[in-house]
Amino acid sequence: MSSPLKTVSIRLGGDLGEHILGMRVLHFVRERYPLHEIVVYSDSQAASTQLDVVALSPVVSRVIPVFHSDPGNRGLETLRGEDLRLMLSSEQTFDIVGDDMFATASMMLDVPIFEILRRRPELVVPPDAMQEASRLLRSKRDAVFVGMNFANCGADVLKAFEPRLTFVLQTLLDLPHVVILNVFASRPESRHRQEPLWGQSSIEEHTALARLSALSDRVLSCVDLSIPVATALLTRCRYFIGLNTGIKHLAWALGVPHSFFQREKPTLLAALRGMPDLHRMLLPDCPERELNAHLAEAARAVLSTARAVENI
Amino acid sequence: MRISDMKGDGSVSVRLEGGLGDHVLGMRVLRFVRARYPSHQIIAYSDCGGHSTQLRVASMSPLVSEVVPVYQQSAPKRGEVGTLANVRREDMEKMLAHDLFIDAHGVGLFARAATVLNVPIFDILAHRPELCISTEDLQNATRLLADHGEAIFVGLNLTKYGVDFLRRHESRLMYIPRRLLEHPKVVVLNFFTSSYAFPHWPERERALREQNSRGEYELLKEYCQLSDRIVPCIDLPVGTTMALLRQCRYFIGLDNGIKHLAWALDIPRTFFHPGMPSNFFVMRWMPDFHRMLRLDCADNQMNRHLWAAEKSLHHDEAPFSARDVM
Asked: Closest approach of chain B CAs to the CA of A287, in angstroms?
């Protein structure tokens, strides 16, 4: 009888985006422990979005939700005793929750910190999710898809971006064959948060997002999709445009060329923590030429023809 | 001129600032400038109070056409070191006269450059700068190592915190070199200077650091008496230092400019740091944080680094011989 596999445990926390960013470390854990079972403990109040995205990693054997005795605290010290014991029973534990930006992990793994930070996590979309994506897009066989996600940030934020957003969408729709996939959830899952982000009002937001889909019959609402299906759709996109959300992080992880709007300039540390793709950020009041440079890149990605770029 | 309009054989200016380490770290951006502007000249403006070491290291980049020293208007105040605000007006005008100006000041961590160059910020931060060593420096290194034909070289540099620090932590700082010297072929190259100037620093810190530098000299010379296989490498030009470092299989040091050279050359290494640096400090100055040892680290951590050093010395390639230089 073969001996059971040794395990390495990794705690990831926060929302979808934080989970994806935390998953950057997985490749290096696998390299350092090629024969160990990698078990991820998802510290997100068992939010299915986070559990699902971790399950897309080809190097993770199991995903286990963990809980806190004090839900307002994300520290290890308030983790439920049984969860903590389970996590620490592994041969090695990596705690990726918090602000140390892989500094501890880089030492434990003997890997340069910036190599971890620059890494995009591997995500493998299961065949049934790919099939579901194909089914959703079957009526758009000749389309060139552009992903979009402006959800989970509140109607007021959407309003702030509206003029520029409408301009961007209309410019993209001027390109032949472009179909925009407007990905959003009717009830964003944010159980790990005590307070809604930026005072969001999901009904108003939902209405505003639905309005964006009404701009053209080539804007498709993709509502309440599972993470594997949303990921499968994103793999079909030649470009992505959105806010700095979890779905945008998915697009980043998949290497989909993208632009994202950010309400205000982040601090340097906030940018380093949450925006490995800072170079693709646009502020609402950015100069027009910056916006046009992004649009030109979108056109290049979508059509790969000089003609389209000139049109922009 | 707008960046997007730049097409032809213009020029891009890049300001490097601070000490040797700051310059080396700032030079990470050069490759990305070259990739974005393949036909442009890249002019490096070295804001280091005219220090020859920084000017020389900037000129070792194969991507830089010219290195121009620039100066601060007055000695910077604490917290102002390296900021653009204090650069002489005529120097600012020179730097801004190019098609594009990139400030590689470490405090910004290339956030602006990443956007301007359309490159992921961590790609810049992870990149080691390219450095070309001149034939003359290689020849100097060959000459200096001529007596150590079959040696396996290990670099050592312990200058930074002063003589009291060295005395207090000597057993830890010298633990790995001592253990490596148990191997009869190992020769330790002990790099230090008889004095070193810090013209880009505020008056008080400058005086303290220069005093530290002078004080360390005698003690570091004494370390060379510990074994006839610890070779003093004193007051060498930065190019020759690099040529010697390149021959080292391992490097042991502190978080200073010479350690950053070893990092740029990808020499396997260990460096010591007193205490735990802040997150920002790591981001700004320690791309090789994973090779840091705290002075109060556990013995097993020290031994892990020793094991890594021993592994580097005995890797499968043919052992280095001084005759291989050139």
From this structure: 12
